[in-house]
Amino acid sequence: MSRPARAMIDLGAIRHNYLLAKALAPGTRAVAIVKADAYGHGAIPVARTLAGVADAFGVACLEEAAQLRDAGIQTPILLLEGPFEPAELPDIDALSLTSVIHTAEQIHWILDARPARKLHTWLKMDSGMHRVGLDPADYRDAYNRLARCPHVGDIVLMTHFARADELQCDSTARQLTCFSEHTAGLPAPRSLANSAAVMAWPDTHGDWTRPGIMLYGATPLPPQHPAGTDLRPAMHLQSALISIRELAAGEPIGYGARFICERPTRVGVVALGYADGYPRHARDGTPLAVNGEVTRLIGRVSMDMLTVDLTDMPAARIGDPVELWGPTIPANHVAAASDTIAYQLFTGVSRRVPLHYRSP
Ligand SMILES: *Cc1c(COP(=O)(O)O)cnc(C)c1O
């Protein structure tokens, strides 16, 4: 018998969520963001599932783009940070990739290149996040230099939001104003919206959206926001009970004796731990499901195992399935109990965990 830890990936859910992102921003095109191995869901199967419907894919680097091209994906691919050095430009040209351009140096590299095909670019403005992007004051000039260059093809005007998940905050509106003012009159399509903006800030939809986390079925918005209710979770991280023990009140469980039984306690041991990507900092009480029924984590998470409270589940047996997150337990709930976000949980699922696919 093999170790029961695995992640079931529902490709139909990803397709559904992509179409939902399109429906939320009618008339726009959408870059399906599949960086970081499609947020841990497997870039190639995800891209193959979306290849017929997605307008483009977004990845973080040339290696991620090449992996998709090698798998036969012909959809446009956007490099979200553009080239890291000019030596990447021949491959960008050969693989027919579109580059974000966010520094003056990258503009020089593009202008100095001698590509066989026109280079398509997305010119990124720093409208307030202050991570990457050109200063608004330099943006129009940068656009004009690219637009005049005979080997530059399409140019999309782009920016990225720092706080689109905070619905009461005026940061997104201020970034939108900054971007609109400094792109006024430029004859090119616009792209601003990540998942949170697709779901909550319709004024930012522009011509191209860039949904990421929502494709995988986790909402970036507060849980009560209605736009999240139609998302379908794509990853079901599961394992099984490998031991069941009866402990007396007052007995400790696991490393550091973090949890002390408050009552006679039936403890289940699950074959999945932090080396699989489950957060070691998950607190006592973090929800998980045994046989589809919700219970709680008790005791510190170990490398290969974690412990759950089965006291109110007398029927639970060794071998019974345990859901860490998925259809019953939203990844956001586990994230909240671990001081992190679903993005980190998904991308942190380790190579030890086999991914199994359910086709649409
Ligand atoms: C990762 C990324 C996105 C997707 O963000 P989500 O919050 O996952 O929707 C969009 N745009 C850029 C530039 C990104 O790097």
- Radius of gyration based on Cα positions: 23 Å
CATH fold category name of the largest domain: TIM Barrel
Beta-strand percentage range: 15-25%
Indicate the structural class: alpha/beta
Extract low-pLDDT stretches: none
Largest sheet: 8 strands, mixed
Tally of extended strands?
18
What share of the residues lie within helices?
Answer: 25-40%
Global morphology: elongated
Terminal Cα span: 29 Å
Our count of domains comes out at 2
Mean pLDDT rating: 97
* CATH level-four homologous superfamily name of the largest domain: Alanine racemase
Bound molecules: pyridoxal-5'-phosphate
The CATH architecture of the largest domain comes to: Alpha-Beta Barrel
CATH level-1 class of the largest domain: Alpha Beta
Brief summary of the model shown:
The chain is an alpha/beta fold. It contains 11 helices and 18 strands.
How is this structure best described in words?
The protein is α/β, with parallel strands linked by helices. It folds into 2 domains: 11-217, TIM Barrel (Alpha-Beta Barrel), CATH 3.20.20.10; 235-358, Beta Barrel (Lyase, Ornithine Decarboxylase, Chain A, domain 1). The protein is 27% helix and 23% strand. The protein is built from 11 helices and 18 strands. It has helices at 11-24, 35-40, 43-50, 62-70, 89-94, 104-112, 136-148, 171-183, 195-200, 331-336, 342-348, and strands at 6-10, 29-33, 56-59, 77-79, 98-101, 119-125, 152-159, 190-191, 208-209, 235-247, 252-253, 259-260, 265-270, 287-290, 293-296, 306-309, 321-325, 355-358. The strands form 3 sheets. Strands 1, 10, 13, 14, 15, 16, 17 and 18 form an 8-stranded mixed sheet that branches. An 8-stranded parallel sheet has the order 8-7-6-5-4-3-2-9. Strands 11-12 form a two-stranded antiparallel sheet. Strand 4 (77-79), helix 5 and strand 5 form a beta-alpha-beta unit. Helix 1 packs across helix 3 (43-50). The protein is elongated. The structure holds pyridoxal-5'-phosphate (PLP). The site of pyridoxal-5'-phosphate has 12 residues, from helix 9.
